[in-house]
Design brief:
- By secondary structure, this protein is an alpha+beta fold.
- It contains 9 helices and 20 strands.
- The strands form 4 sheets. The chain has a 7-stranded antiparallel beta sheet. It has a 5-stranded antiparallel beta sheet with strand order 14-15-20-17-18, covered by helices on one side. A 4-stranded mixed beta sheet has the order 8-9-10-11, with helices on one face.
- Helix 7 links the parallel strand 10 (279-283) and strand 11 (328-331).
Length: 528
């Protein structure tokens, strides 16, 4: 029997890795069982485990913008359905106003109960409707969830309804029974219905399989160590993360930063360090009001960006979890673009504005120049095909390091689809994909270079680009140069070139080439 009043350092390390291992196992199952390119090839998914109150305990190293916000989705489920949660139930959620990021990111949440048995005595008999002891969740980016454009990443949406179908704690599995008819009805019963419900269903089932692996592994852990120890170490792991962040905060200085975006909106942040208790206040007062465009970032996304930045300042190998947030007071005025109210459009807030928040925070702290600051979201499709990818660029330089060329940075951690898979599954040709020379800002430490990606279309399709830093360059710090802005353009089959804005929808004909040049990262320190 082990004491659970104080953590044993060795046991703390074991449990820290065990929790993370379970989340990684969930991710492996999800990747292996999914059918969509988005999840299987690009790895645009995240898996995590949560304590009984819905607070993040551990995650696999998946997508940062998902991981910092999934806890809000789980807590929303607890608040909404707390008394009706039963063993065998699984819920779907993508509501940006309840912890979601944007509608294509759909989260499957499974409450974990301890069943009574001789081997596994439950602290509360099943008949008394026990509360869940943990939650597991997986979030996957659906290739299409409806909305006004194929791929559900519309560049010009103005309301959330135009972006697709909303799931708000939707009962996907009821006491072990998969509610396929209800799901199909929900995907179809919309002004802009889902274009490929079979693929949605297949990916939902893959998420169920991932969650089931998480449930099995947690139950194994409880059998081996006992429920008291497992729950106690969940708390200890969170407390350890909190202390690590406090140590990182202790060496920081106050700072503020204002960062403009291509559309004229601005993010303003002021960081105040409180040395006496090693905490920080992050205040976004002064940020632009809610926008008529879709660059509004849900509050959960803003919190995820803050959580990510402060986690990256910690040298220790700790899981990103709820403990990291405890030393942080985050002030986000209601009705600003970082805390919008329904029915604001949000599809770009998750992928674009989140990146701007991260760079603004690094700027305020003075530790790192801006990275490319965009995910370069490229979608194309028709009623038959729907495809989505994010494209790499240059990362920013820092106090003692150069930026990296051609990397997915900060809030995205996904991959690009292999050319062979892309060309096999879709009627396109990847004509070239190369580094964009001299696009990183020069400095004592130089920013990384962006890339140039050329895709030739073989069938008529609608293509969409949703990007940033086509007007405003990624900033350099301490006299470092800014990175080069990106550029979106089309080379028509007849040779005519058409320049596109940061966000654009365009009809592609056979032989047309869509060209995306991504921004470079900013430099740090004076170039000599």
């Amino acid at each position: 029997m082990y004491t659970t009043s104080q953590p044993d350092p060795v046991r703390l390390e074991i449990f820290k890795n065990l929790y993370q291992f379970i989340a990684e196992q969930m991710g492996i199952v999800l990747q292996n069982t999914a059918t969509s390119v988005n999840i299987k090839e690009r790895l645009d998914f995240s898996c995590a485990i949560f304590d009984s109150s819905g607070l993040l305990v551990a995650n696999a190293p998946h997508i940062p913008v998902h991981l910092g916000s999934m806890s809000e989705s789980v807590r929303s489920l607890i608040n909404d359905k707390g008394n009706t949660l039963k063993p065998g139930n699984v819920y779907l959620s993508n509501n940006p106003y309840n912890g979601g990021t944007h509608l294509p990111d759909v989260t499957a949440i499974t409450p974990v109960f301890l069943e009574s048995s001789e081997k596994n005595p439950c602290p509360m008999p099943h008949a008394q409707c026990p509360m869940p002891i943990f939650f597991v969740a997986s979030r996957g980016h659906q290739a299409d969830i409806g909305g006004i454009t194929p791929g559900s990443m519309p560049p010009h949406s103005t309301t959330v309804e135009e972006e697709g179908i909303l799931f708000d704690n939707f009962l996907l599995v009821e006491e072990g029974d998969f509610r396929e008819t209800a799901v199909r009805q929900h995907l179809a019963n919309h002004t802009y219905p889902a274009r490929n419900p079979d693929q949605n269903i297949a990916d939902f089932k893959a998420q169920l399989a991932a969650n089931e692996r998480g449930v099995q592994e947690l139950c194994k852990m409880v059998l081996q160590y006992g429920i008291d120890t497992v729950q106690a170490y969940m708390t200890f792991v969170q407390a350890n993360a909190e202390e690590s962040v406090r140590r990182a905060i202790a060496v920081l200085k106050d700072g503020s930063f204002t960062y403009k975006m291509d559309d004229g909106a601005q993010i303003q942040v002021k960081v105040t360090i409180h040395p006496e208790n090693r905490s920080a206040t992050i205040d976004f007062t002064g940020t632009s009001l809610q926008l008529n465009s879709n660059f509004n970032a849900p509050k959960a996304v803003t919190q995820a960006a803050v959580l990510y930045v402060f986690r990256t300042l910690v040298d220790d190998n700790i899981p990103l979890n709820a403990g990291c947030l405890n030393p942080l007071e985050i002030i986000i005025p209601v009705g600003c673009m970082l805390n919008p109210t329904y029915p604001a459009a949000v599809v770009a807030g998750n992928v674009e504005t989140s990146q701007t928040i991260v760079d603004a925070l690094y700027g305020a702290l003075g530790v790192m120049a801006a990275s490319q600051g965009t995910m370069n979201n490229f979608t194309f499709g028709n009623e038959q095909y729907q495809y989505y990818e994010t494209i790499c660029g240059g990362s920013g330089a820092g106090i003692n390091f150069d930026g990296t060329d051609g990397v997915h940075s900060h809030m995205t951690n996904s991959r690009l689809t292999d050319p062979e898979v892309l060309e096999t599954r879709y009627p396109v040709l990847l004509e070239s994909f190369s580094l964009r020379a001299d696009s990183g800002g020069k400095g004592e430490y130089s920013g990384g270079n962006g890339v140039v990606r050329r895709i030739r279309f073989l069938e008529p399709m609608t293509a969409n680009i949703l990007s940033g830093h086509r007007v405003i360059p990624p900033f350099g710090l301490n006299d470092g140069e800014a990175g080069k802005v990106g550029r979106n353009w089309i080379q028509r089959q007849n040779g005519i070139e058409e320049n596109l804005d940061s966000t654009a929808t365009v009809e592609m004909k056979p032989g047309d080439v869509f060209v995306i040049e991504t921004p470079g990262g900013g430099g740090f320190g004076k170039f000599s």
